[in-house]
Amino acid sequence: MKLASYNIRKAVGRDRRRDPGRVIEVINSLGADVVVLQEADRRLGPRPTALPRKMLEDHSDYIPAPLAANDVSLGWHGNAVLVRRGLEITDTQRIELPSLEPRGAVSVEIDGKLRIAGTHLALMRRYRHPQMRALRAALARGETPTVVLGDFNEWSLTLGMEELHHGFETNVPGATYPTFRPVAALDRIALSPEVKLKRSGVHVTELSRIASDHLPIWAEVSLPAAAVPEPRSAVEHAPGAPG
């Protein structure tokens, strides 16, 4: 399976224009089975989604996982998960994370065989550590192979991820922030031992450099033979998004 993570900055690009169409175009170009999003909803009021559901339905091959706590958001604390049509969502979870500012995480189970979690951690490491502990505890309740993707807001390549080392192997695909000259690998992946990482990388295109202030990351993973989901029947390539 191919997984991806993308901080879409509420669909506001480097040019300060809010343009959900080009964000969807970047998402389509990833070619992933599951895409975890951060900052998918606005922060104020009822937190309306930055990616209209109708636009996703009409211009992508993805279905938002049912994670929102209201009728206007796409996710939980801005964390959303898009699943390609043809894959079955067998479980969802919203996870509260401790912080001075509202933070959370989400997870979805695909075909009962792979759990994918998405998160957006705090700016300060002293808050990220208890958040990772809470995330690890919430995900440890089951035995399903698990992959965590998201914006961990960690600038160091050697420190800061220790709380996930118990039970997960972390991966840094590359520098993702800021898009005009990436120097920080804020977006990362953590895999439980049952999940094998085949390849990972940063999705760099002319459009992804302007659609947000983060570049998307992706990972190709393999599961134990007994846990491999059935082949999907959906169309492989999604139609293009509006300009």
Automatic annotation (TrEMBL):
Residues 4-214 form the Endonuclease/exonuclease/phosphatase domain. Keywords: Hydrolase. GO terms for biological process: GPI anchor biosynthetic process. It comes from the Bacteria. The keyword Hydrolase applies. GO terms for cellular component: membrane. GO terms for molecular function: hydrolase activity. Gene3D superfamilies: Endonuclease/exonuclease/phosphatase. The keyword Hydrolase applies. PANTHER family: CALCOFLUOR WHITE HYPERSENSITIVE PROTEIN PRECURSOR, ENDONUCLEASE_EXONUCLEASE_PHOSPHATASE DOMAIN-CONTAINING PROTEIN. This is Metal-dependent hydrolase. It comes from Maritimibacter harenae. The lineage of its organism: Bacteria, Pseudomonadati, Pseudomonadota, Alphaproteobacteria, Rhodobacterales.
